[in-house]
Design a protein that fits this description.
Pathway: Amino-acid biosynthesis. With 736 residues, the chain is an alpha/beta fold. It is built from 34 helices and 20 strands.
Amino acid sequence: MFPIVQYQPLRLITKTTLSSTCLKLVFSRPVALTQIWKSWLSSHSVVGNKNIILMGPPGAGKTTVGRIVGQKLDCPVIDVDDDVLETTWNMSVSEKLQDVGNEQFLEEEGKALLTLSASGSVISLTGSNPMHAASMRHVKQSGVVVYLDVPTAVILRRLQAMKVDRIVGQAPGVALRDILQFRKQFYRRWHDIRVLCAGDTAEAVADKVLDAVKRYQNSELETFISTRASRSGNCKGKDCAKYFSDVVTEGLAPDGGLFVPENGLPKLSAGEWQSLIEATYVERAQVILEKCIHPADIPAPTLGEIIGTAYGENFACSKIAPVRHLTGNQFLLELFHGPTASFKDFALQVMPHLFAYCVPSSCNYLVLAATSGDTGSAVLDGFSRLRDADKQRIAVMSFFPEDGVSHIQKAQMIGSQKENARSVGVKSDFDYCQTAIKQIFTDSDYTGFLTVEYGTALAAANSINWARLLPQIVYHASAYLDLVHQDIIAFGSPVDVCIPTGNFGNILAALYAKMMGIPIRKCVCASNENNVLTDFVRTGVYDLRGRTLIPTLSPAIDILKSSNLERYLHLMARGDGQLVSQLYSQLEEQGRFQLQKELLEKLQGDVVAGWCSEEDCLAAIHSVYSTTGYILDTHTAVAKVVADRLQDRTCPVIISSTAHYSKFAPAILRALRIAEIKQNPLSQLRLLSSYSPLPPVHWGLLETLKRNENEDHEVCAADTSALMSHIEALIQSHFT
């Protein structure tokens, strides 16, 4: 599904191959950067004998930038237009295009490029070179292809000013914008590195190119550590390094902590963010995820194909995550247009493909997930969409609280089961399911037994897995950019976000988007009656003593132990894994921990919190429907209530609508004061549909329930050994 034609970066640059002095200079951007680059490139054959190949649309500045890069590196510069095509043809490019026409020109241009033989040079391609596959394969083998990604609006202005008349495809009645849009698919196919060029000078773009190539060749700085890792730990050096592909595979760190990027997430400049204002959701996702995933783990073209597949026909709305005005300064970020009708689809349509790419083909994998409702069907659906060869070696099992999800959520999970995707009800609550899975992962005797006996390794699909969390950053960034695009705000103006929160993953993704440069002022943490997070944010005390889980109408946030809070505490503590470890040891042993004053002040600088009763949740659904005709789901209603109470209305607030109301039909019918509530989930949805609601009843949910009205599922006791028995049964039936 995802072919690779790729010059692979190598993990070669370490402290053993660069002196500590050189390392310090290279990564602190000194005045003598040019000299260091010359030395570094010339001393490493993997780059020194390769070319830096600049690719992009006409008007991207490839020729000018190429000359500057060549000057900085003191290496030859080849401009394909001037030095290859016109030399070969003995005529200008515009004359050749006029002489032979569009299709023949591409062929002639490709043939000329096939004759190019160069090393250690900077090569500036033409805008149409990437449309000829054979010549691009040839030139790609000789170096690193850098895509100068310039916003289409900027290119159009430049070309108009330059009065360019030699673009392949240019003709009366053919819009130049359409030509540029068509070509993007070829740039995405061939690039190794993307450089966002957002109003930068040619000199600045050249520096970005050098930085990007440096990153490409050195993945050693993009390692991951456990949130509980001591700064003076015993494991050091490249043998202990964990990369993106490792943490996707392993899920949970061996010490029980969660993996986080050792050097944090990249930050985009204001100009780079603004270059994405006109972009589609898929384009934004590719740019952001390329920044966060090193190409040594997943090459950029492969990542692009994964993203295109994930957010293609599986989503009912072409905008993927549209932002809708609700009332006043409140906007809804609709995250329910995926196949299983919740925000979990945004990660779980991507993560299975990332996982399949990263894991070695020599081993079978069973992916485990605990769910409070929405994750279950999303993880089953996502992994069932893998290609057949991957489904044969990767299976998934979801554990959910048997009596802790809505009837429709349960029916959806049962209906989402496939040959490699099974669901098991557990006679307990979500916290038990999540804790049991963590215990299974950290039981080295058991995981070793599965590997030896069945050749099967375990992996995690909950948001404890970094690949689950990462795609969620995209929609928070995209929502802000949409408000800018709609002229609601100017870029740089702040917004608040309000998120129904249980496991802290979704709100953490918003905090990460803020770190990466999105102007989010406050993250509003909205809880239901299981309000341990509200108390924690207000007091700094995380106290589980005497608390029992309360089943509510918003079951996806019926959680007391918020796993991803650990990642945020590690961030606030500036990577002090020892402190995080101490806090969670106290939680396990004493049932509580308390933040120091300094950390609490940092927390309250980013996050405010409130909670909502069941009565207020239902009243909000009724009120919004009565005034706007729009139906909120129960989780979104919780967020709406909290936003009304806490947000000061001095800036827009984006409320995350995390699930479609169809999943909670009985509660919605009750809120709308519809007397007749039938027990059959499909009948409930048909009744709701008869009211012509906005938005309509979810298409995917209806289809799933129609296909699987009478299907059954497995149930087990709240006992780790019982869960293990189900795990082994699936392994035996699927892999042996």
